[in-house]
Amino acid sequence: MVVQQDICNGCGYCVPACPFGVVDVSLEDGKAHKCTLCYDRLKGGLEPACAKSCPTDSIQFGELEELHARAHRRVEALHAKGVENAYLYGAPGAPGATGGLQQLNAFFLLTAAPEIYNLPRAPSRPAERVGPSLASGLATVAGLALASLLFLAAGRGDRQ
Amino acid sequence: MNDTALLSVPAADEQDVTYYGLPSVKPSLWGGLVSSYMFVAGVGGSAQIIASAADLVGDPALAPIVRNGRYIALGATVLGGPLLIIDLHTPQRWYNMLRIFRKTSPMSIGTWVLMSFGPLSAALAAAQFTADRGHSPSRAEQRAIKLLQIPAALTGMAMSTYTGALLSATSTPLWAAAPRRITAAFGASAMASGAAALTIAGLRRSASDNTRQALDLIGLAASTLELFLLLSLWRRFREQGVDGALSESGWGLAYDLGAVAIGAGVPVLHHVESMIKPKQRSRPALVIPLAVLAGGFLRHSTVGSRTGPRSTTISPRWPAASSCCALN
After folding, report:
1. How close, in Å, is residue B113 to chain A by CA atoms?
2. Which residues of chain A are within 8 Å of residue B52 when distances are taken between CB atoms?
3. CB 3.0–4.6 Å: which of A111, B6, B62, B258 could bond B298 by disulfide?
4. What is the ipTM of this complex?
5. Are A22 and A35 a contacting pair, CB within 8 Å?
6. Rounded to two decimals, what is the model's pTM?
């Protein structure tokens, strides 16, 4: 996901919508911002600067499927070494990929509770709530509109 | 939700484990402008719905409701649009909202609802205005106006409710805790406020008793449903452990007293009382509709405004019975 800086009008809806608290609006330029994965570097065929410069290669960039396979191998290796609490967060079917989120495009290998890394334990996709929410509201108002019609029509005879 | 996956996550050892006290989601930047808009949108949308119902009945005695409803709907649009634009952090780019339609975003849905409701309401108000000035519309014009009233009512329904979906489709725990109930409560609140606004608007033009009674009944139905939904919403907030977000924000009393008691409780009691003793009007006619409007405004201000810091640190989405719930 990339925020288009030439389009964003700073409505701010993305800020509370983000399940991971990533996006924020700058009060200086009035636009929303988040990591662009070094969009300019990607266009030039380079990996993001954080992945490039990470001295321990903790941050890796690449095709998701390849990264998933690598991460699973790493978890198994850690388990074999006795680090039993190692797990993936945000890989398909793993914690973090909950509530309608199939997988996270940035996923993590963690060894403690997600909260310790400032990650939500069970994030959900906010858009999942749009349908049920709208439907129940519209049904309520439609019911009351029908009731209004009946109440307004009921007095008709009296008024004539 | 994948429970087995959740259980494999190490449980946090201590209560309230956070990353250096930072919440994992960000609070909304919205304030009074957006919550005022939500209130105004509800009043305007619902006034248009009731006007449409009155128009459909076709009784000349209901003409004041149709007239006032159309004007209130226009007023809400004229007031509401700028409220939203001023709230943008780059207001000069407001029209970028019109580049796309995105069904996963209530913000985008709402943009198009307002863009449909506004012109429809403006057209109906213009027709009403020319009729009020003595112009008698031709048969074709009459038919066109009657036809316009239907999409105006439908978009009015969306105006009265989409703001609830806007809140529930965020990651803010309080807003996301009860997606169905919050929007139903917004809708019922809007209908109560719409009826109250029409009652007040009708006071000047000595509306007939029957007209006022019909509005009273609509208000009673909406307020009763609203009271029920608010209590149910309240229970849901407690079940999910997010009710603290309201009380902690300092708005707890305003919500309890204003939104629930004044906005819904008092009107319901009054309606019941006046049904038992129809001849005794102990209170001036303005008090109850004003209470409904004030309660509706307070409810949107408390639920819709930025709530306290705990609104983002408490996490309601955890299964309450599971051992993982250190944050609750």
Report:
1. 13
2. 145
3. B258
4. 0.91
5. yes
6. 0.88
